[in-house]
Amino acid sequence: MLAYARRHTENQDTNRVGIRQSSKQTTGLFTAEPAATIAVSVDGSPAGPVAIAGDGIAYQVTTRSSSSSDVTRVSVLTPDGQLLATSRAIAGLPEPDCQAVGRPDGSLVLVTLNDKETLSTISIINGNGSVVRTTTVLGRAESMTSSASGAVFVDTSWTIPFFPTGYGDLATLYVSPQNTVRTFAPSGVTAGPDGTAYLVSSRTGIPTQMIRPSGRVQRIVVPFGSNAGTAPVFAGDGTAYWTVGTPTLFGGEKTRLYTLDDTLKVTRTVTGFPARAVVTAQGVVVVTQTGYQQTAYQGTTYYSWIADNTVVASQAIDGASNSQVTPGGTVYAVLDTPAQQVTSVLVMDSGRTRGTVTLPGTLASNGPLDVDGSGPRVGEQGYVTYESAGRRYLAVLDPDGTVARTVLLPDDASYTSPVFFGPDGAPYVFLAFGYAQGEVASQQVLAVASDTYTPMVSGPVKYDDPRIQFSPDGTGYLLGSDNQSGFMNVIGFDAPGTTPVALTDTPIFAGRILVFAPDGTAYTFLAGIDGVSLYALSPAGATEVLPLTYFPLVPVVVAPDGTLYLTAHGGGDNTVVTLIPPTAVR
To answer: What whole-number distance in Å separates Cα of residue 517 and Cα of residue 397?
Structure first.
């Protein structure tokens, strides 16, 4: 049946750190007495927020610059707000996009650059402030990521004269839990649930190295000429799967499925160029392609269900432009046939066609979307957006090959996104309005489960923050920004279609707009008539935590136990770190 979705009609200051008495009366926001705080003063200017390591140790990185040298120091703070130690001076300054990383063993990994930004120095600082190791490498550190084992990966670049961007990727550095440093070709990093890290070639997408939690590095050997692959995906028991594509002698393409449980092995080989692999209840569904064209898809897509090292079934579909694979192993293969003014969807299960759905319109194109904190696909339904007679529809399909329902989308939407999922498994669709010359005038989100829309917000934020962000408890936040006034607005949304938060004061970008605690609470700085305050956002609404007398430049940090850390310039060469214990956060 056709269900019309319901739409809502509601429409660097460096002042000394302190707590401002709040008299805020803003609609929709709750105020409270200022939280009890602990302030710690450390030497130097702040180089970012604190980094939290194991055992709750907090590290504050600070810098001092003079005409003769630039140095960095690290101060160690205990969870009860005591200044335990300060490191010796470390040469160079940190790169703002390469923030220091705390590790499970309680140590900190810090990267500093020389004044020409041609050398990067990796320093390890322990919980008593000692610099236990330094290693200097060629290149400019760009970013750092860490794994559960305590391994840290640093991406570096170098200057390339006459290159369009002025620089290129140089290497990926591996800092082991034992503090050794190794250099690899530029790679992406995929971390497994057991702490094993997989280096994936930036050029081919093929996993090239496995790094065990113990620090042991194992090279992944692939056939000569392998030219494409997919990053590892993981089953519930931790088994890793990935694909590698290799040309055949006569110009064809074969895809190998690699499996790593206790040992590394090639499970099966199937026809086609690797597209993706999905772990399902029916085994691994490997999607491969042949005959792909840059301008139009005119080839064949192969779907192979592989379980217990055996290809249970394989299905070849001509002209499948895209497909969806559910956790249960159901495949929805979309056949775009614009000449017939219909869209056909084949529903398959372990190689059997369970039904074909014919939608009365052409497949709709989707626009860009950036989401942070989304969850994996949940449920066995499929979702296809199509257009008919100038209108756009979302068809919700059942695994038996029938249409469960159809949602008529707003006529004035410029584009929609594919269905995406929150961490609780709830499905959503993003809608953009007034799209012209690459700009979006307004935006909203459809909660598919309840057929309800959020209120409109203005265009996407002008900062690097994703426009949609999810907290661990499943609450979503849609961020908007008016480019002319600079006003930002944030609304919360959930699967039932309620709007638990609709901020009427503008958030402040301090490295990030929202920071999430493990319990799902979101923290943000809001600028109102009375000044700036730290607020906590939750399904209960927005509550003021702490009024401030300064303009925040770095995000708040939430420790695993719920303690909040605020870092600010304290005047002169001085940094003040304010701790708010979890018992003081309302």
So the answer is: 36
Total count of domains within the chain: 3
**What DSSP designation does 339 have?**
G
Coil/strand/helix, residue 158: strand
DSSP letter at 5 equals P
Q: What CA–CA distances, in Å, run from 443 to 143, 313, 448, 501?
A: 31, 43, 16, 16
178 residue type, one letter: Q
| Entry pTM | 0.88
Looking only at the bridges linking them, the beta strands covering 371-372 and 468-470 are: parallel
Long-range contacts of 222-227 (CB under 8 A, 24+ apart): 222/246, 222/256, 223/256
C-beta neighbour count of 217 within 10 angstroms:
15
Q: Domain containing 420: what range?
A: 364-462
CB 152 within 8 A of CB 101: yes
* CA distance linking residue 165 with residue 216, whole number of Å: 35
pLDDT (tens digit, 9 = 90+) per residue, 85-115?
999 999 999 998 899 999 999 999 999 999 9
Closest CA to 336 of 303, 298, 304, 366: 298
Q: What was the pLDDT predicted at 550?
A: 87
The shares of helix, strand and coil residues in the chain, as percent rounded to the nearest 5, are 0, 55, 45
Which residues of the chain fall below pLDDT 70?
1-35, 161-166, 292-298, 321, 436-438, 483-486, 584-586
CA distance 107 to 313: 50
Residues 382 and 356 in one domain: no
**535 and 456 both lie in a single domain:** no
297 and 386 both lie in a single domain: no
Dihedral sign for Cα atoms in the order 428, 429, 434, 437: positive
Please check whether residues 368 and 355 belong to one and the same domain.
no
Residues 333, 369, single domain; the answer is no
Look at strands 452-453 and 330-337 and give their pairing. unpaired
Comparing CA positions, the residue from 300, 274, 299 lying closest to residue 285 is: 274
User: Which amino acid, one-letter code, is at 241?
Assistant: Y
Tokens representing 413 are 């939407």
SS3 390: coil
- What is the reported pLDDT for 340? 80
CA dist., res. 84 & res. 126, Å (int)? 11
Between CA 214 and CA 150 the distance in angstroms is 10
Residues in the chain: 586
- In this structure, the strands spanning 362-363 and 557-558 are unpaired
> What six digits make up the tokens of 318?
């001509």
HSE-CB at 336 with a 13 A cutoff on CA atoms is 15
pLDDT tens column, 546-581? 999 889 999 999 999 999 999 998 877 889 999 998
Asked if 322 and 425 sit in the same domain, the reply is no
What is the per-residue pLDDT for 18? Answer: 45
Q: Cα 340 from chain centroid?
A: 39
By CB atoms closer than 10 A (0-12, 13-18, 19+), residue 286 is: buried
List the beta bridge partners of residue 46.
Answer: 62
